[in-house]
Design goal:
The chain has 422 residues and is α/β, with parallel strands linked by helices. Helix content is 44%, strand content 16%. The chain has 18 helices and 15 strands. The strands form two sheets. An eight-stranded mixed sheet has the order 9-8-7-10-11-14-13-12. Strands 3-2-1-4-5-6-15 form a seven-stranded parallel sheet, sandwiched between helices. A hairpin with a 4-residue loop joins strand 13 (323-328) and strand 14. Helix 1 (16-28) crosses helix 4. The chain binds 1-(beta-D-ribofuranosyl)-1H-1,2,4-triazole-3-carboxamide. 1-(beta-D-ribofuranosyl)-1H-1,2,4-triazole-3-carboxamide (RBV) binds at residues 56, 58, 60-61, 129, 154-155, 188, 192, 299, 345, 350-351, 356, 359. 1-(beta-D-ribofuranosyl)-1H-1,2,4-triazole-3-carboxamide (RBV) is lined by residues 56, 58, 60-61, 129, 154-155, 188, 192, 299, 345, 350-351, 356, 359.
Length: 422
């Protein structure tokens, strides 16, 4: 509902209590975020800053949004994928006074409408997952550029977009590549994607993964996490790649590496994690076994060419939530999960809170950094400083009750003394 005087549009505001419980649950699993609230709730480093965010509206994102608000920011939010919004969480945020424009299942027009709504208060900072906000401001709202302090980007696909923009000289404000922090991509992309993708596939199908041939396309961080978890559940995993080094890593990690053409007739389950379009196309569908299940965990829905499948399919029906059965002329059935959109967020709840704790701590610190220094920075893509990564890892370990060793002064000396050999 969008009503006069209200700065939100969500599916059903009466779901707010349910959403609040979910958010509380996430808070109880996100100790680093709670620590940031404690630290910056007093000093309010984001006071007076207007932040527009475009990132999956999940219980974890709600924890980030509330933390930004506690640190003084005014926030306006939209979801970054048509199928990832948790409507109860959106309702809870709206009921608690956050300006949020997000509901599950919005159309492409509504998706961009929601982004426009979040820009109405003329943000000074943008927080993106996929860079749709940054791109919209640069293409449609150039008048806003002068007020911008900077932006941050959550995911690999968005970073590629930003690097390309910077290379062309088209980027007009500084962007922090949150994705590339070690405490983000070595954890969120690997363990987060690994677990949440299995979760999405299982919720949409409830199949037994043990004994299945599970094809993972792409052996970047997300592909590696997914391959590891599929193997852990007893699947026989085949990895497909276009990059020689990644293919070699997968091989030495003990996975079978093959081409998609060779894997297509063998796979029971397919999962794309490449960030590239047309990874599974018509000629692959034509080879698949009856009952093959096909899903994507990459940011955009371009990895599986569903248009090709539509062309050869005789009929289609929803057999379970987030699971569509396509029947081919010869009677074979192929199942597409979550319309080829990221299965971990569309068919499950996204990455677990514990891992988003680190990703979103990086987001928070990026916002703080840009609020303080953004105006002095040249437009470029900035990597997260090493100290920030180290501090987040330190805090995470501390909240997990894990202690580590410290170098002695002799060891530090040894480390820097190049004269000592055998
Ligand atoms: N992602 N967010 C969640 N639970 O809020 N789960 C996954 C969540 C992010 C993740 O950081 C990844 O980079 C991005 O979604 C892909 O769009």
């Amino acid at each position: 509902m969008e009503s006069k005087g209200k700065t939100y549009k969500v599916k059903d505001i009466s779901l707010a209590d349910q959403g609040r419980s979910k958010i509380e649950w996430a808070e109880s699993r996100m100790p680093v975020m709670m620590k940031l609230r404690e630290l910056y709730g007093k000093t309010k480093p984001l006071k007076g800053m207007r932040i527009a965010g475009c990132l999956h509206v999940t219980k974890e994102t709600a924890v980030l949004i509330k933390t930004l608000a506690i640190a003084g920011a005014e926030v306006s939010w939209s979801g970054c994928n048509p199928l990832s919004t948790q409507d109860d969480v959106a309702a809870a945020l709206a009921a608690d006074g956050i300006s949020v424009y997000a509901w599950r299942g919005l159309s492409t027009d509504e998706f961009y409408w929601a982004i426009e709504k979040t820009l109405e208060f003329r943000p000074q900072l943008t927080l993106d997952d996929g860079s749709d906000l940054i791109f919209t401001i640069h293409s449609k709202h150039k008048d806003m550029l002068a007020e911008m302090y900077g932006g941050s980007e959550e995911t690999t696909t968005g970073i590629h977009r930003m690097d390309a923009m910077a290379k062309e000289g088209a980027l007009a404000y500084p962007v922090v590549a949150v994705n590339d922090a070690e405490t983000k991509w070595d954890f969120d992309n690997v363990y987060g994607t690994g677990q949440s993708s299995m979760d999405g596939i299982i919720r949409a199908t409830n199949i037994l993964l043990a004994g299945k041939v599970f094809v993972v396309a792409g052996y970047g961080h997300c592909g590696r996490g997914s391959a590891m978890r599929a193997r852990g559940l007893g699947a026989r995993v085949i990895v497909t790649e276009v990059d020689h080094i990644a293919a070699l890593k997968a091989t030495l990690d003990g996975f079978e590496v093959s081409t998609m053409d060779a894997a297509a007739p063998r796979g029971d389950v397919f999962l794309t994690a490449t960030g590239m379009r047309d990874v599974i196309t018509g000629r692959h569908f034509a080879q698949m076994k009856d009952g093959a299940i096909v899903a994507n965990t990459g940011h955009y829905d371009v990895e599986i060419n569903i248009g090709d499948l539509e062309k050869i399919a005789k009929s289609k029906r929803e057999i379970r939530p987030n699971n569509e059965e396509y029947r081919l002329a010869d009677g074979r059935r192929v199942y597409i999960l979550a319309q080829g959109r990221l299965v971990n967020l569309a068919a499950a709840e996204g990455h677990p809170s514990e891992v988003m704790d680190m990703s979103f701590a990086n987001q928070f610190m990026a916002m703080k950094f840009l609020a303080e220094q953004g105006k002095d920075l040249k437009p470029a893509v900035y990597r997260v400083p090493r100290e920030q990564d180290e501090e987040i890892a330190r805090l995470k370990l501390e909240t997990m009750g894990i202690k580590i060793d410290k170098l002695t002064p002799e060891q530090i000396k040894y480390k820097t003394d190049y004269s000592q050999g055998t």
